[in-house]
């Protein structure tokens, strides 16, 4: 079994605020963390390895300090951390990021052996797009299993997997062939706690750093150059003021008044006011 | 296979990091174990550190550490209901030779940990030390919360802050009593750009530190309120003796709201936006509340050892100095290869020679004295305001009537004889 887990280092958005003037994130003094759902993807990969043996390779793209995110994954038990780092990768949108990660996965397959499954989080806390996982599946020409909340069966010999996906209002059970790309939700599992020896070893561990040339990527398709997305404007919504109406009285009475109000004010078709009882 | 270090430091605060710096710079294999996500993550301190003790521990810190403002003014305010008598000191000499800085310790400690790491110490975060490894009466390592989490080391420094569970486990002391800890609550309030300079009469980069005393600050309980200026925020809070809060059923949040609404404070905070709210215990029991500071293979520094000067509001600098002295003692022990009390007792000798112990000894009676004599936190601040009010108010009455008015205020509340005694006893407690 060989799993590749794609992770992203993100600012801990619980501590980030937005500069209302520039509309950009104020990252001063905000700690960087591994995108939380990516850790669940890693945990799923580690559970595969616990059961079947094999190898877990963690992949990320980012500046040099993103190595600390890979070290956190190594502490949890990943076999290798690969950092795509190169100025030419910088300012990539999800399209260019997908291209870069795909290029690296090609190299990983060639040099570390065939990849049975690619896992990642549903989306990153900072960008919130959820596009890189699906993009990878497209480029790798393998099935996409997004929003995975449970893995029911997996057989790497027979190359098949059965997962539960959480979609709006329903849970879908899907069987798929492998290799596939899984985007994982936090409900999937509980992330393990690194042992102290593993943590210490990871702090000293080296990560594999690859440049654009190392992965044989086309520089024109990387970073800003390879990004079709243009952020034309970002802004913080103006706080709005509105009137708030409180329906008072006995619960049944208040509810009736509320229903009447909604029907009258919003002209809900097919409904006639019930008429609140006289007090 | 057990993990081994020459020294383990429990807690990545100023005490622990100061010790780690000494050891790492001497090439000792030292680990700092911090339970927070990063050093400083669990810290709520937004206050003042003093330049010289800090520089003694980390030479040249001022040019690289994340500092908020150079404190140019120190003020004491005595609050009455709608008035404040202010004593302020400012010193232009501090521009050339800084005396104190406001810092946010969450940032400062993170910087300090980075420095210690660069010096060669291993900083292990998100890891809680839950117990000690013992061999009879000798401590020989720690047990952490992680799987396979034992760490062996001939030297362990307990610098885990006020909640020093390990001090008890090491048999060096007991938990604090409620009259030995102060509960601090604090808000960090962001002000519009330029507002701090304008409202506090400061030049750019210069800050002020205000301590507030009086019934309006602490509802007559032992403690004080404080206000410090940071880069673009102010820290405002109260710190009140826990046993007094309990006896009085007083809620510290209510006290803080009252101070924020005081007419001398409210205009300073106007238009501000609350950024952080936090609460923490401060061990202010002083010299008498101190645990035993060393045992075989173990030492205690900083808040864990009650190294807080409640009179002068110092804590971080005492933590750093005690940490450095602990580090030096640990180094000596490693050189001698003797980790018993015999060598580690040198830590206490070093502290005795330093200002840390001299100050704490001098003020050792202050805590209990003032805790039992609440008039200093209620009656006298009001009286001082009353005097000032009579002094500065000009109306159609002759001045003699003003004096009489003042005496009427005192009469029936406290005899002149007792006031005289309070002055003498208060002075004795401090001097």
What can you tell me about this protein's structure?
The complex is a heterodimer of chains A (279) and B (431). Chain A has 279 residues and is of the alpha/beta class. Chain A is 29% helix and 24% strand. Chain A has helices at residues 36-52, 67-76, 94-112, 132-140, 196-204, 251-266; strands at 2-6, 9-11, 17-18, 25-26, 32-34, 55-61, 80-84, 117-121, 144-155, 160-167, 170-177, 180-184, 208-210. In chain A, the strands form three sheets. In chain A, strands 11-10-9-12-8-1-6-7-13 form a nine-stranded mixed sheet, with helices on both faces. The termini of chain A are far apart. The relative contact order of chain A is 0.16. Chain B is α/β, with parallel strands linked by helices. In chain B, strands 4, 5, 6, 7, 13, 14, 15, 16 and 17 form a nine-stranded mixed sheet that branches. Chain B has a six-stranded mixed sheet with strand order 8-3-2-12-19-18. In chain B, strands 1-11-10-9 form a four-stranded mixed sheet. In chain B, helix 1 packs parallel to helix 11, helix 2 (51-57) packs parallel to helix 11 and helix 11 runs antiparallel to helix 12 (341-353). The termini of chain B are far apart.
Q: Using only CA atoms, what is the Rg of chain A?
A: 24 Å
Which shape of chain A, going by the Cα principal axes? globular
| Residues in helix, % of chain B | 25-40%
- Strand count, sense and closure of the main sheet of chain A? 9 strands, mixed
Overall pLDDT level of chain A: 89
Our measurement of the CA-to-CA distance between the termini of chain B, rounded to an integer number of angstroms, reads: 55 Å
Q: Main β-sheet of chain B: number of strands, strand sense, barrel status? A: 9 strands, mixed
Q: Total number of β-strand segments of chain A?
A: 13
Mean pLDDT rating of chain B = 91
Q: How much strand of chain A?
A: 15-25%
Low-confidence stretches of chain B: none
The number of helical segments of chain B is 17
User: What's the oligomerization state?
Assistant: heterodimer
Q: Helix fraction of chain A?
A: 25-40%
Element order, helices and strands of chain A?
EEEEEHEHEHEHEEEEHEH
């Amino acid at each position: 079994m060989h799993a590749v887990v794609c992770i992203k280092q993100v600012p801990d958005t619980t501590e980030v605020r937005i500069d209302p003037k520039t509309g950009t994130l104020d990252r001063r003094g905000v700690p960087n963390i591994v995108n939380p759902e990516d850790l669940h993807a890693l945990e799923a990969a580690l559970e595969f390895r616990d059961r079947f043996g094999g190898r877990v390779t963690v992949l990320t793209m980012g500046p040099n300090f993103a190595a600390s995110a890979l070290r956190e994954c190594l502490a949890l038990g990943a076999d290798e951390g690969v950092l795509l780092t190169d100025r030419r990768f910088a300012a990539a949108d999800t399209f260019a990021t997908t291209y870069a990660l795909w290029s690296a996965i090609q190299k990983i397959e060639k040099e570390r052996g065939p990849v049975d499954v690619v896992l990642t989080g549903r989306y990153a806390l900072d960008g919130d797009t959820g596009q890189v996982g699906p993009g990878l599946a497209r480029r790798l020409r393998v099935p996409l299993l997004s929003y995975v909340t449970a893995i029911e069966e997996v057989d790497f010999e027979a190359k098949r997997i059965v997962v539960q996906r959480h979609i709006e209002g329903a849970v879908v059970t899907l069987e798929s062939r492998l290799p596939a790309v899984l985007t994982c939700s936090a409900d999937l599992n509980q992330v393990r706690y690194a042992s102290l020896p593993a943590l210490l070893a990871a702090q000293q561990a080296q990560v594999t750093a690859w440049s654009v040339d190392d992965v044989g990527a086309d520089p024109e398709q990387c970073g800003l150059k390879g990004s079709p997305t243009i952020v034309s404007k970002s802004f913080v919504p103006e706080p709005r003021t509105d009137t708030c109406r409180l329906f008072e009285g006995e619960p049944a009475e208040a509810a009736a008044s509320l229903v009447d109000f909604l029907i009258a004010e919003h002209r809900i078709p097919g409904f006639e006011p019930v008429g609140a009882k006289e007090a | 296979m057990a993990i081994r270090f020459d020294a383990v430091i429990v807690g990545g605060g100023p005490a622990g990091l100061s010790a780690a710096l000494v050891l790492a710079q001497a090439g000792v294999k030292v680990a700092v174990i911090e339970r927070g996500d990063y050093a400083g993550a669990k810290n709520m301190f937004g206050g003042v550190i003093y330049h010289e003790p800090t520089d003694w521990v980390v030479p040249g810190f001022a040019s690289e550490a994340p500092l908020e403002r150079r404190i140019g003014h120190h003020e004491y305010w005595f609050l009455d209901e709608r008035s404040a008598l202010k004593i302020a000191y400012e010193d232009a000499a501090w521009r050339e030779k800084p005396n104190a800085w406001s810092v946010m310790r969450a940032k400062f400690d993170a910087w300090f940990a980075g420095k210690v790491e660069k010096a060669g110490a291993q900083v292990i975060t998100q890891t809680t030390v839950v117990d000690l490894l013992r061999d009879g009466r000798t401590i020989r390592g720690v047990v952490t919360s992680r799987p396979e989490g034992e760490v062996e080391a001939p030297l362990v420094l307990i610098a885990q802050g006020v909640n020093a569970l390990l001090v008890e486990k090491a048999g060096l002391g007991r938990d604090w009593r409620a009259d030995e800890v102060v509960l601090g609550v604090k808000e960090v309030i962001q002000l519009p750009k330029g507002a701090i300079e304008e409202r506090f009469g400061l030049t750019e980069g210069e800050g002020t530190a205000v301590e507030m005393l009086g019934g309006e600050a602490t509802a007559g309980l032992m403690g004080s309120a404080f206000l410090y200026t940071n880069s673009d925020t102010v820290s405002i809070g109260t710190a009140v003796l826990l046993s007094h809060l309990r006896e009085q059923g007083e809620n510290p949040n209510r006290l803080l709201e009252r101070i924020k609404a005081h007419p001398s404070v409210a205009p300073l905070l106007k238009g501000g936006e609350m950024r952080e709210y936090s609460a923490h215990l401060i061990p202010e029991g002083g010299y008498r509340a101190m645990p035993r500071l060393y045992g075989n293979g173990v030492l205690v520094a900083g808040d864990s050892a009650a190294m807080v000067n409640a009179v002068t509001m110092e804590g971080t600098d005492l933590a750093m100095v005690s940490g450095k002295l602990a580090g030096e003692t640990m180094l000596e022990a490693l050189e001698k290869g003797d980790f018993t009390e015999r060598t580690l007792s040198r830590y206490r000798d070093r502290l005795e020679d330093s200002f840390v112990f001299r100050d704490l000894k001098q003020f050792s009676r202050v805590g209990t004295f003032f805790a039992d004599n609440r008039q200093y936190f209620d009656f006298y601040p009001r009286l001082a305001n009353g005097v000032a009010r009579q002094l500065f108010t000009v109306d159609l009455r002759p001045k003699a009537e003003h004096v009489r008015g003042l005496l009427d205020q005192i009469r029936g509340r406290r005899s002149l004889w007792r006031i005289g005694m309070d002055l003498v006893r208060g002075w004795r407690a401090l001097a």
